[in-house]
Structure formats: C-alpha cells, structure tokens
Amino acid sequence: MEIKLQRKEANKLFKQGSYEEARSLYRQVLDRIGGSNVLPRFEITLQIVKTSIYLQDYEIAKSDCESAKLLARRLSDKKLLQCEKYLGEICHQQGNHEDALQYYNLAYRLSVQINGSKHLTTADISHQIGDVYVAMQHYSDALTSYKQALKVRQKRLAKFSKLIANSYFAIGNVYSCEREYKLAITNFQESLAIRHKLFENNHLLIADCYERLAQICNDQCKFHEAASLFEKCLKIYLVVGGKTNFDVAQLYRNIGLAKFDNGDHGEALSSHQKCLEICINIYGEEHPNVAMSYSSLASIYYQQEEYQQAYDMFRKSLDINLKVLGSNHWIIADTYHNIGNIHYNQEKCSDALKMYQVAMFMRLKQTRNDHIRHRIADSYFVVANVYAKQSKYHDALEMFLKSVSIFQNLYGESNIVAIIYQKIAELYDRDGRADDANDMRSRASEIFDRLEHGQIPTPIQTTSPVIVENDYFKAYMIATIYEECHSDCTRLTFIGPSDSGKNFIVKLLTKQNLTSPYVAENTEAMLDLSTGNIFKQKTDDYRKIVGKKIAATMLSITQQMESQYKMEESSLSELILSKIETVPEANPTIISSFTSEYDENRLEERISNTDTNLNASPSTQYASVDTRRYLDTFNDFMQQSLQLCDADNSQRSYYSNVWEFGSKISWNLRQLFTLRNSIYILTLDITEATNQTSATNEERTTLNTFLDSIKECLVSVLDGHCDDAISDPIQVDDADLDVGIYEEFALPVVIFVGFHNDCVTSDTVRIFNNLTETIFSTFPQYSRHIIPSDVVFNCNPKDTSSYAIEQRETSCQALRKLIQHFTKLMPVLQDCVPIRWHILLSILHKSVINDGCACSSNSSNFPRRVMSVHEVEELLQDCGLFRSDQDTCKMLQHLHDLGEILYVKPDYGKEYIITQVEWLAKIFQVLFASAFGQKADATRRFSFTRITKIKTDGIMKESHITNVLREFSLDDKEKEAILQLLENYNIICPRNNANANNESVAAAGREYFVPIIITPNFKSKIDIGSLNDAGYHVSESLYIQFEDNSYIPDVIFYPFLISCLRKWNNLEAELFYRGAKLFLENDLYYLLIVKERSKISLRYFYKKSTNLSDELIKKLVWKSRPQELIQGRFFDTAKKYMPKSMNSSLANYVKCSECGQFLNLFSFTEDSRCKKCIYCGKTAKSMGDWINLEAYRIELNKVIAFTSRSTADTRRHFFTVAKEIGIDWEKLAGALGIHCNETSVIDAENKNYYNKANQLLEKWYTQNYCLKATYTLACALDHIERRDILAKLKFNSLELSDLKTAGRTDILERLNWH
Question: Where is the Death domain (predicted)?
Fold first, then answer.
C-alpha cells in the first residue's frame, strides 16, 4: 500500500513539473519493489527515464533506459519498442543523430511487426525519423518519412487533428529548407488552418506558423508581408509569454530587420531598441545578443548616414564580442569590415584600408567554408575599391580578380560577378586598355541579360586562387623556420597476463574479424579516438594525418602573405597587437619581417647554394641544401595544400597507434618499446583469483601468482622508463568523465579493463572493481599511474547475439572516451613543436609508403632504417630543415617520446636512431618466434633439433640470427645495430667461446647467451643430486631477497643474469630456466644462481680433491664473498629497472636445516663455537657454508668499512637524494664543485629533476671518487640547507664516524646521533 501511495505522489510531482523530487521518489519506489516484479519495475524505470529527459540529464536517462530494456526483454516486444523510442529521443536531444536514427529504425521495425505499417504508433515513429533526418540535413529522406506519417494519420484520424497539423508543419519546414517556397507556404497554411480550428487565436502553435511564413516572405524579399506576419506572431507571444521573453526580443529583431530591408528605418530603429532593452534585462551588458542589437542599430544609423552614431554602436558591439567571443571569430571580422565601410564613406581611405585589411587577415585565418569564403571575397572587393580610390590601379585589379574568382566558384556568373566586371572595366579605362574594358562590360551585360530571363547561374569550379607557387614557396620557408603546431598521435599498448583477452579487445577496437584464428599482433593500426575510424600505417592515410596539419599551416601563411603584401606594416602592427591574438598558425609580424628580409632573389640564392660537402657537421641556420630533395619536399606539401584548401581543419583529432605484442615478445624485450608518453591498457580476467596460479601456454608449471604477473606488467611499463622514473603529477580537469579517478595522475597511464567470457552484468563489474582495489592496495607505489574503469568486455567469440554486440560497442566507446581524455592531457601533445619536426616525420613515413620499407644502410638515399645522428642531420640539411645540433637532438627526442622512432643512447658508443619502430618490432617477433619454435615462416627453415638445442642451452648462434632475418634483407650495419640494441637492453650477452687453445671467435662464429628463451620443459634446473653423485661438494643455499619479501619480476632478473654472465663469461658458464651456473676461475669453484619467486638462491660447488679441502674453499668463499658481488649487481639492476618498487633494502638469508625457518645471515647467538638458529636453538649448518664466525667477529669493522667504501654504498644514497632534491639540484651541483657548463649540459639532456640530479651525482662520483664521498655529500646537503634529505639517509657507523672526526657535530646533532 505504501508503494502505491509513493508512486501516486511521484506521479503528482511529475505533473506539477517537480521533476527532481519526482525522480527521487520514483527511485525509492523502485528500490522497494522486489526483483521478481518485472512489470512494475519496468514501468517505474521508464517513468524515471521520462523524468530525466525533462531534466535534460540525458546520460542518466540513457543508462536507466538500458536497464529498462533488459527488463523489457523479459516482458514483451511492445515494452522493448518503448525503450527503443526513448533511446532514439535521448540520442536526438544529445545531437547524436546517427545513433538516434539507429534506435528509431529498430523501433519502426518492431512497430511494423507488432502493429502493422498503418498503425498510428508506426506513423509517430516515422515522423520522429523525419525529425532526425532534418537535423542531419538529409531533406529528401525527411520528406519521405513525414509524408509516410501524414498518410497514415489522415486515414486514422479526424480531419482536424493536431498530429496532422504537425505533419503539414514539418513538411513545410523541409520544403522551406530546400527553398521550395510555394510548397512550403501551402503546407504551412494547411497546418495553420487546422490549428485555428483546434486552438484559440493566441496559441503558440499558431505563432509558429506565422513565424515560418514570415521567414519565407523575408527570403523572397517580401519584407512588408514578412514584417506584418512577424507582428502577428509578436502579439501572441506578448499575450502568452510576457514582455521580457527571449523569443519576444528575437521577434523585435526580426521585425526590425524586415522593416530595415523594406526601407522603414525609423520603425526598424524602434524595434531594435526594444530588442536591446529586453536583451540587457535578460543577459546584462556583456552578451553576444546585446552585441548583435548594437550592431543592428549601427547598420540603421549607417544607412541614415549618421556615421558617428553608427561608429559608436559598432564599437560597443566590438568591445562586447572581443570579450565573449575572442579575437578569432568571424563576427569580429565582420565588425572591423563594417567600421571600414564607415571610414570609406567618410572619405577616410587610409583608416578604411586598415579596418578592411584587419578583417581580411582574420578571415584568411578562419576555417574555410562557403560562408567564410564569401566574406574573403567581399574583403578583396572592398580593398580593391579603396586601392582604386587611391589610384593604385594595379593593386586594385589584382584584388578584384581574386574576388571575382571566389564569387564565380561559389555562385557562378551571378550579379556580383557582373558588378566586379564593370569595376574592372573602369580600371582598364583608366589604364588606357579600351579593348579589355569593352570586353569586361560585354561580359557584365551578358550576365545581367541571363539573370533577367530567369537563368540560374551555376558555380564554376576553379583552382584555388589563393595559392601561388612563388608565394607558397616563401610560406614553406617561413613555416620551416618559425611555425609550430601540435602533435596528435601517441601509442596505445595492450598489456596483461596471458589469456586475459588482450587479443580479443584489440580486434574489437581495430574492427577485425573476431572469429579469425590469427592474433592481432602489432596491428599497425591508427585509431581515431573521436570517431573510432581505423587508418593503416602502411597506407597513405596515416601520412595524411601528419601532412594535413603541415599543409594547412602553410596554406594559412600563404593566404595571410597575400593580404599583407598590400598592407602598410607600420600602421597595421599596432592595431593587430592591440586587438588580435597572435596564433601559432601565422604570426603577422614574423611574416612581414621575413618577406621583407628574404625577397625572391635571396630565396633563389639560398636554393641554388648546393654545396656538396656533407661531411662537415652543419652549423648555421641557413646551411646548404640538396636542391632536388628540397624542392621535392616543397612540391609535396604544396600539392597537399591544394587538396586541403577547402577542408575543415577546425576540429582537432587525436589518434592512437595500437600495439599488442601477443606472446612472441617477452617483457624484457617489450621494454625497448615502452614510452612515458603512452597509454597502456592492462586487461584483467575477472575470474582469476588473486592467489591463483597464472599459467601461460608454454609455462604451465610456473609458481607466479596472479598478482606476480600483474607486477611483471606494471614494472615493465612503469619502472621501465629509466630516464623518466620520477614524473610530476598532471591535473585532471574533466568533470564529465564517468569514471572514478584521482584528481591527479602521473605518466605513463595504465587503464584497467576487465575481461569476461560471459554476459557482463552489474555483478561482473563489481567483481572487477574488487579485483582492481586488491591491486591498488598491493602496489601503492603505482597508484598515481593506475586508472580504474568500469569497462568490462564480453570476450566470448561464440556469443554473436545482438545484445553481446551492442554491449561490446558500448564498452569500446567508453574505452575510447577514456583513452581520448588522457591523451588530451599528455604534455607531449599539448606543447607546440616546430613544424619542421612534423615534416621530418612525414618524410620518414613517405619512405615506407613508397618503398615498402626505408632504404637500407648501404643505399645512398635517405632515410635509412638505422641512422646515426650525423646522418639525420644530413637528411635535415638536404631538406632545408636543419637548425642546430641541439635542435636536432630535441627533435629526435620528441619523435622518440611519441613512439615514432627509437632514439638509442647507449652507455658507451655513439647514439643512433631506428627510424622504423614497427620494422624493429617485427624483427624481434620473427627472431624470438624462431627461438620459441612458434609457427612463423622463419621457423620452418630450421630443424626441430636446432630449435630444441637453442631452447635448452639458451645460446643463439650468429648464423641462426642471420638465417632467420634473411627475409628482412639486413645489411651489416643494421644487423650490428640490432645486436647492439639487444646488448644495451641486457637481452643478450656475447659468449666468450674461445677454447683452451685460444682459438679466435670468428673461426667458430659468434654466439650469444639469451636466457629469456629457455623454457622449463627443456631445462628447468641443475640436478643437485647428480652433482653429489659426480663427486662435487654442494653448499647449502643462501638467499638474496628484499626485506619485505616482494616478488622479483623476470624483467629485473634476466638483466641481472646478463650482468653476471658478463662478469664470469667463460666456456664453463651454463644457462637453465631462470638460473645459471657460473665458474669463478680465480676462486676455483662454481656458483649456481636460481630465481625462486621472491628470492634469488645461491649455491657454490666444487670438485672434491686432495688439493681442495672444505675448509680451504670456505675460506675462499668468505674472503671473496660472491654473495656481495651478486647482491651489488642485483641492487644496481633493480635500481635501474624498477626504481619505483625499491621500497626496501636487500638482505641475505639462509634456511635452517632443522626447522626450515629463514635466518638473516648475521642473526645468530653469541656462542663463538657454533652457529645456532634463533628459532629452534639448534645448530644451523647452512650458515657455516657462507660465514666464518670467528673471522666475522674479528673483521666486523672491516666488513663495515668494506661496505661503506665500496661503490655500492655512497651510490645507494643517490636514489633518495635525486628523488627529494627537486629544483635545488643546481644548488647541489655548485656545492659539489660541478662546473656550470657541465650543469647546462645535464639540464639540456634531461627533462625532470630526478634525472638531472641522478646524472649530476654519478658524474660527481666518477670525477671525485674518494673514501669519504658520503661525508662530502652530507656536507653539501647541509650547506644548501636540505637537511630534510639528510634525515632520510641511512648512514652507517663508519660514515657517522667520518663526520665526527671532521668536527661536523652540527650534522650529527641533526641526525640525533650520539
């Protein structure tokens, strides 16, 4: 009973217009209705949808309507029909006409199926479809739909029906849009007649008919009739709506315009003044409608030749519009133009010219459409009139010709064209060209005659008059020197555990066949984030994305130059600076200075300078260029500009380069392609429990938990940016984003997306959110990078139901919206960069399109796939794009940040560039697919025996690499660069395969250790039992791990293993799955390294003999302490590859052979005769293999000294200092005695404070190494008053003693040391 009363009260509130209260009450009713009561729940949900539509909360309405749709499927098709109609209405109101049409068509088909085609419901939907077509300007389709609805209504309803009147009105509106005025008037009159029968004379629907008839009369130049009809409409509005309604103000404006056009200036003035009063009362003084009223009053004063009043009104209008519209709006240009008209009529030609030129300059900058092109032509026309009045006949003729060319293109041989021909004839007369003048007059007369006989002119297609090759050449030079624009594309990479739906979701986004067995790896697809359209990189479409931006900019410069040639620079500059915002696309001051400084002779002189000595590094801004290449580049963009001159470039688009590696490339290899300025999509299988084993196709026995695999992903993409380990937060300012995100985030961004093999429900989303929260709490160090979402995909390829398809499309749209949001916020896309950088990018992509791939290194043509920095500078020089070495480095770094190239800066050797990143990724895929034995074309050339040996030994021969990559036609330089790249990123390590006779490596061919290719199925570990049987003594294990026992990712372990192989590289070295056997030649024993999830296990073993006793080997182990060397290498690797996860220090543990507890290597009892476990009290034999207790007690201070004076100790403070120092890093450089020149180099090479400080500290330590380096660093921090950092450093006792000895008790007091 209470539910009925609440529902009744909600209905009452709805009828009263209290929609917010009604919706709240409806939701209370809905919550109280049981889940089994489907029909009541459906009815209430649909009522909530209606309420939200009235409140214009369309997204909420859409969401509730989708819920109602789910209920309707359980009821009947009639209920489903209602939902489809509401969804169509919502999308129509939102302006999403394509979706609205789709929903209405579904509703129409359902209605025909349920009710038949001649039912009123079907007619209503047909009428609504017509409304959508009108909004889309598809008038013929709209007319068909409206007439279909009218036909049914006429048969089903009485003659004088409101719906029939509405149909006539809608049909009249379509005819009016198509300028079929007779048919429009007929239909409006039919609608008016019916509405007169149905309603009182003062009804708003009758006023609508009057207003539309008045507009038609206006279009037909029947201004008196139009004014009369507008006045009838006004009387109704004054009765119904009051005197301060906006519609009343608009009607006064329309009456004023009609009176003005009819010549009744006095009455027009009165109407516009009433309109102004109402607008000021509604909006206040500063509003576009108020400015419009001032402008209308100015036009009347202008016609009455009251120029001062007209000028004052235009100035008021201009001042308001500059504040509310900005300085780049076409209305601002129109106002300047109108002020120019006033000056012209006052015989102030100089002032008129200034105003006309400002208007023309602004119009040339605006997006090109017929509306703007008409105004540009008008500007040319009035400027020509001024020049003619100033007796500058040649300049006037040039401007008239430009004007007539545009008008012909727009309207054909029309009245304005004939008028211009007459103007040109007058100029010819004054120039003594009588024949040409007569020809112009004859052509004008012919046009007037054709128009008098009712012949309608047709537009004439002409080549764009605003592009002249010589001018465009200058524009190209200006663009390459001065102009800047944004980048619009960044990389979108899918990551996640195996079998987590990455491949399926990529196929969905890139519109591939979902049932295809092929993997969507490295799709080479560009995703338009606004529309969802796909561009292929290997087609010209992708290059057009870059080329359109470049060509549009240079086209804008060309057009402005044409206007500026005739401007008086001194008088214009002050006005432009005061009234016009300088935009990157075209700086007028730069254009003026450039065109005056570099005339045609200078330009040709520069091009003709073809100095061929390219060995010297270019050093000046205007270095010599390759004439052919320079002109080819110029002509290329000129042709694009000719094609794009009328394109709409106002809407900026964002694109994502979609990457998904599949299973062919390990996490270690993927680090080569990780970017800070990238978005990563981490896919999660929501059915995966956080403690469940995550098994891959090749690795079913792994012990990694689900969270371990997530950490592997996060470390590889977030910690993998060695140069950008610490990033500043970026503010999130989009309140419309429908996901719960933090107020700030850091790059790179990782968006969590769910994967499910069934229908996605609210429970599915809840489970996904719980899983996300678990990951958040487990890895708090990544909280600023992780972006949660409610996006969950149904990834069951067998589910092809319409509901699943619709759900996937909704998920794709939500994901694209989220990606676009964060793409827009990326600094690399927000900052403008020189346009020559984009030109270089376009050149690189053109080489791929034309040749299939870039030129190989032995070719004389650029660009090559592998290039040195010097070769890039030669390419830039040839194309006239080179500025300086520093500019080149910045350019390469920017393209690297976008993922367009790979800019390799090795620790040693020269820098080089991979210009085709996709080509490199394909090489790695093929190379390691062959090693893993996957089905690839390259694999088929090799026997199973060879593949098995590679996967067993982890050793890859150079001959194998050469054969696998034969299809890529690599030359020696490219192959060496790829191998060097793999070495730099610690993927491979050259094997020292010289035998005892010291035979050369070349004789046997080079071999490489590749630990990542070994799989557990082939060689999981070394059998310890077999070693004992073979007469070896094997020690107990010593474990290296983080104190918080956190998981050690493979992305860190394998580079660490490579560093150990480089240290102990001999024929005895042997690899196995996640481990290695190393021979320490100087110490006469072997070392086993094994990864065991969160620990690295060490064992040593040796061949038992009379010369090597157990005690001797233990003393050697104690003396050399291999665990410290191993731990130091692991620490350096972890610091480099996962700085964000270094939350705890490393420690050494052994396992008690009695109780199984793990013991710190130095945590034992004080009994000097034995080593006892602190847990069970029994002798811990495992400690005896790694520590000599007596020697330890004697040498404890030496151990501390060794630790503090080793390279690892002072440098262990560098991470904390670099992380905390911030802007004070330069002060620290001064305190440490680093020269300012070196500081400038560090500043230029790095982007954030962490990188700058870290490089500074490393350079200082290398140059000034001493035993008391920590002491010097502590004093420097104290000197610059960064004692907060001192408090965070963990000094050992020797370091503190150094401070005490040096008398720095002040620092010791701050550290609370006694």
Answer: 1210-1293
